[in-house]
Amino acid sequence: MNRIRTIQLGALVLLVALAACAAPTPQIIEKVVEKPVEKIVEKTVVAERTVVVQPTAVPGRDTLVVALARAPSGIDPADHSSREAETVIRNIYDGLVTRDHASGVHMEIAESVKWLDTKTMEIKLRKGVKFHDGSELKADDVIYSFERVFKTNAIEFPQPHTALRKGFLGPFGSADKKDDYTVVVNFTAPWPAGMQMLVHTQIVSKAYVTKVGTKGLIEKPLGTGPFKFVSAKTGFEEVMLERFADYYGGAPTLAPVGKACVSRAVFRVIPENSTRVAALLAGEVDIITEVPAELVGTLQKVPGIQVKTVPGTRPIWMEFNVAQAPFDNPKVRQALNHAVDKDLIIKKVYNGLAKPLAGPLMPANNMADPSLKPYAYDKAKALALLKEAGWAPDASGMLMKDGKPFAFVIDTIDSMRPIAEATATMLRDVGIDASVRVWEYNVVRPKLLARERQAYVGDWGDSTFDPVGHMEAKWHSLVTGSTYGRGNFSGYANKRVDELIKAGETENDPAKRKVLYYEAQKLIYDEAPAIFLILPEAIEAASARVQNWQPASDSRENLHDVCLK
Amino acid sequence: MKAVKILERMLATIPIMFGVAIIVFFFIRLTPGDPVDIMLGRSAAATQREIEQLRQQFHLDEPLHVQLGYFLGDVLRGNLGYSYIRNKPVVELLTERLPATIEMTIGALLISLIIALPIGILSAVRQNSLLDRVSMAGAFLGISMPGFWLGIILILFFAVRLQVLPAQGRLSYDVHLQEITGMYVLDSLLTGNWRALEDSLKHLLLPSITLGAGVAAIIARVLRSSMLEVLRSDYIKLARAKGASEWGVVMKHALRNALIPTVTVVGLQVGVLLGGNMIVETVFSWPGLGRLVVDAIFNRDFPLIQGAVMIYAITFVLTNLVVDILYTYLNPKITL
Amino acid sequence: MTAQTPARPARGWDYTLRIRLRLWQRALAELGYELWQRPFVLMGGVIVALFILAALFADQITIHNPTRGTLLLRFEPPAWEAEGNWKYPFGTDDQGRDLLTRIIYGTRVSLAVGLLSVAISVIVGTALGALAGYYRGWLDEILSRFADLLLAFPFLIFAIGVMAFLGPGFVNLIMALAFKGWVEFFRLVRGEVLAERTKEYVDGARVSGQSNLAIIASEILPNVIQSVFVLGTLRLGYMIIMEASLSFLGLGIQPPTPAWGSMVSSGRDYLLTAWWVSTFPGLAILILVVAINVFGEGLRDILDPRLKIE
Amino acid sequence: MTDTLLELKNLTTVFPTRRGLVHAVADVSLSLAHGELLGVVGESGCGKSVTMLSVLRLISAPGRIASGQILFQGRDVLKLSNREMRDIRGRDIAMVFQDPLTSLNPAFPVGEQIRESLRIHHIAHNHFAREKDRVLQLMTEVGISSPTDRYRDYPHQFSGGMQQRALIAIALACEPKILLADEPTTSLDVTIQAQIMDLMRRINDARGTAIVLVTHNLDLAAEFCQRIAVMYAGRIVEIGATDQVVESPQHPYTRGLLTCIPRIAAQRTRIEPIPGNVPDLANVPRGCAFADRCSLAQPICQQELVPFCEVAPGHKVRCLRVNDAGGAT
After folding, report:
1. Residue stretches of chain C with pLDDT short of 70
2. Smallest CA–CA separation between A429 and chain B, in Å?
3. Model ipTM?
4. What is the number of domains present in chain A?
């Protein structure tokens, strides 16, 4: 036992020593604040570079190593479903358009994208964009890429199936070639979210994919992006890319334009948080993703390490089963919204690196209603509302109604456990006997959709910055077999909200769209099918050698302009 | 003669493997509810077609014995089903990751032997000395030390603080190695790639120590107690009476006999090493079976779990086959 | 043979029982003496006893709620650290819950899972082992083959496999552990019974007209019970480690119920900032298991030296 | 006595135990001449084996030789370095152990174990073929048939008698001057016993090897040895030429040993087994250790250590009642 203690102390001494060396280093956190897309994208940098010491300089190294928390599920641009895959794909493939670090959309392979009418889009392509095999990208490749994503059973490997990314093309109808550099896309309905959604579709080479097939494409991806694929190890545990010498330069409106800065980029999977941080400290990797909020303080004190955060795109709610007592009463749901101290959770659990949510959409969403304010933490109001609903505290302070206590189980997944437990604790403070149960997502999800559970703490990605992909999934009533309500775990069903969501999807006038979505948000906000909790920031860290690096809100980490000192 | 016996012993493992497959088959019967529902929970938009596909794979609509027949037939043909999460045949996933796990297991076994043999021998020879007491106390701790904890401490010390050993992975990104067996150390040797050899050994060291520590403790204890027993025996007295040096007595006469019970225990410990992989592979980002299984568990990837458990069991059975054969060479009395 | 039967009531059941009790008393006294001679073993026993007491009286000896904390008290360091507070001797966890309280309650889970899974293993293993060893034949053949098969699986991997399909939970955990745990008791008892059944006193009992089951229960089992007890003690530590490993992997006891394995696991992300969260539960596992092993091995040396090293 | 090869002077070997210090060998003096056949007789636990192990300094810790001298060819072996001691073991003084099965290393072929003796003492200059030839010769000599075939056999493939022969071969390998034979025939059946004893006698004849035969069987010693020492509770209680000891035993214990064995040759008037038990060696009575079991014991026997009394030239006995005892014969 002594041995353990000694090692333990050794580890502590070590950390203290590391910390001590860095005592005078000021805050080097950078925050990027986005504004709605209509405005000019601006960055507010809280603190620019401070003098830092390099951890371990491997001389003459021109390879950027990025540590991911999970392995990409596969790197076919049409057929993947993980953020890690998105990051890797983003560096090999370019899309017609891309997004900056916030939510602004910029032309990439496309020279211009124009709506001919509400359902027809004309895409003009840049000339001279080369695939990694040297062939030029033309209209046929774009059409082929769209069809690969959209057509039923277009992906033939391993068994014929429909691409996982189909949803991103919305009401896609057909794509026609006007000439080698012009494509016209016909949608079956207006598609206002089209531009934001287009960011997520990357272009593959028709000639290459028809030659090697999907299997070949996965084994050796080939795109037009800043890096070309070199090799991947077992299950994409390590993906190595190298600079594409004939790169056209990327989006002209996003500086710097030109070839990638580093000659090689490596993505390596390090799932354990502590190990990922250790690998950065040891100088084995240059950038790490998904830094636990607790470690921000520690890492900031380490010389030669920079920590950056951006507002994330995965808001967290606690959804009630509104079909079931006691949550069938909106007053109870509002009361619980008032009972949770979001600021304390942000301060303690997220180390200050999160924002409170005001309703169903994250603040950065282009259609988020800025007039909605987060439910205020107000115990008295919560108790008053609960009293109106018939719940009164007994002698021990526990809420009772008709002789029964207010007790329920909050389901959650492992990564959400801390916030779920914190929420439960706060609810217990107002006399509600809430307990937490941790599930695996795949197990609990069908139960939630079957309305078998009582409450669920979880998140839902909102990386398109548009309500589409989000509102219809979370807050539209469930329509089995469609994308509507696929993530509606509360069972919330409001006819008016459904109408508004549907109307918003096809309304092309941004102002009118706003009206629709603002009304929907207000309704959801008032009826509170969930406790609107928080939006955690994405935290990344890098060694000081890494320059010009910016975490991406939508996790589409672009290494194109990152340099190594 | 011996060869025939060994062959017999090898053949005897075949029914065991069959039994393993049957037990693994029944795993899916343990699931409360419909396994297909649980598996497809992941994609809400599970099409009828996907459901049908799954039902077909498991032959869930057939009677049990027919299902078993299909399953065994598939296993015999090397078809362990299809992983939903990874979109790949299970066999492919397992075979591409097995070498990494085997490499680490062998590394851990070697490390544990390197630690355990001298400690076990010395503490028996110097029974009740300070060395004996300290190393036996250490052994008790080593058995119950949580693997991930030791791993992180080792990373902090050797990778972060001293920066002499890597914290994660199997090979540095800038070292090129032509893969033949998938076991990097072996591949480096086969291709005469010394740089890769050094690099892969460095990467192997910390995980092996982490994984091997507990096993080293057990082996040291077993070796010590059997050494003590052997050292009391008459033939050791005789060896001394012959005038043999103490080194000769201990290393030749005693060790050889003390190894006999130890070898059996080492064989059993391989099971512990295989189980420990899951935790250590996660800590050190080692792309082996263990991590695959952990992922599979959280994703309810039943075919993958079945396949992995089966592969583990088969590896274990084969290891013990090797141990049995080794045993006959160590112990002349046993002819299998 | 029937002629023999009337003779039995004279040596009535209560008589045999009394004799047995007296023998047991003597054995216990001897055991106490032997333990007194081995301070380390005794200490191991005392530590195990303390853990058991802590588990039994967790409600009485703790002042905090094991599952309820407040974020305001998140990551209070252990009392002896700079900002420590003796109200939370080992500090608090990520939910601001007192770590010591949780560790004490965690003892319940560890011991309950350990004891119950060993108990089931003992009962099933002993019963089947006795039947197989006594009757031999096809029953023995089937059971032995099945036991051999289970031995082909490494323990943790088998338990993980079973748990992955069963789903996490207290009862499932015990079932998964006992599912493989009985094999060793089966093999032990079967071996002993095989050896015992040929002895004279068994023949004697058979001649005196006792039924087979009665012979197994009253004549053979008392002779193997010591070995079973020793093996059971040693397996207890192993089962506790298995429980912790499964909980660590998220397959065991579900939070917020405090279980050492899941406490260690959920604390590992904080190892760099709040080392105590996973270290103390880890130490608890370490100490209890070491104590059980020291005690168990001591018992083995005293009661049944034949069982040396599994 | 100029012929003395080995001489033990006041040898005392002790073992600390939880119950106190055990004097396994207490103040034993013995001498062995070149080519002599000496018997050391006593019940098990009387210290005879420990005496032999002491000669080779093979007492395992925590036991130790507390005092006395062991002179081999005039040199005190207790003062030799470990290295020098190892040179003596096996080469000058060899030992044959009681249980041949457990004394042979089960992990090595018998032939190799014989060869090891040669190798250790560089008898054949570490020349394998010469060593092997010598081993085969030794095996033939001790009566192991077809040695070439049996060279690679393991101990468990040998019968008990053959194992004992192999042990003797190991002991003889370096042509030692002294052979310490510790109960060499106890675990063997009668016919084999006779063969082994025969073999040892031939060795003594042919090579002039002095043999110390340690046995609990006084008759065996009587048949084989020239001189006999009787030990009881760590001490020699009677020593003398075989005829003296067997024909006119002076110590009641010796007589007890003789009467324990039904003999055909000498008709005994009564058979009296020795009553009582061997005393606890950790707690040996101050006086005569045998007093508690002795029918002739008197209070004085219990009080002080009984000195040797030379009843005839070379025939010494530790008994206060020598004369009375003599009358009992």
Report:
1. 1-13, 255, 304-310
2. 33
3. 0.78
4. 2
